[in-house]
Amino acid sequence: MRTKNIIHITRADDLKNLHSFRRSIKKANTKIVLNLSLLNSTDNFYWQKKLNYHACTCGCGEGALGSLLGIIVIILSFRFSVFEFGSWSDFFSSSAFYFSFAGVALFAACGKLSGVLYSRWRFKQIIRGLFELYNTN
Fold this sequence. Notes:
The structure is a single chain. By secondary structure, the chain is mainly α. The protein folds into two domains: 2-57 and 121-136, no CATH class; 60-114, no CATH class. The chain is built from six helices and three strands. It has helices spanning 12-18, 22-27, 41-56, 60-79, 88-93, 95-136; strands at 2-3, 6-9, 31-34. The protein has a three-stranded mixed β-sheet with strand order 1-2-3.
């Protein structure tokens, strides 16, 4: 059942429909309230927290990690590079700086994309697991 900014999950049918609401959950700051009779209150709260987290995750943490990894890779590649830069001004005036910036941006984009895809996959897995749990009992 859906009310304004809150989605109440009380039955297995509600779990089926939850994946179709994922996009609107993210945009409208909607919260999922899980109240399955099969689970006790602690488990309901735990899975509710997981569903809300994975429904709204944007992948920024993974993007930041990708940026950091990109910076480390760029620094190591220049440390062990065959090219010699006399000073930092030589480095910043060369095209290597722009390729480095593009490389870090690429690492960040890959990190963000992987974070979003992982979150979507995990959201589906949680729904599937709860649905199977609900149907086995």
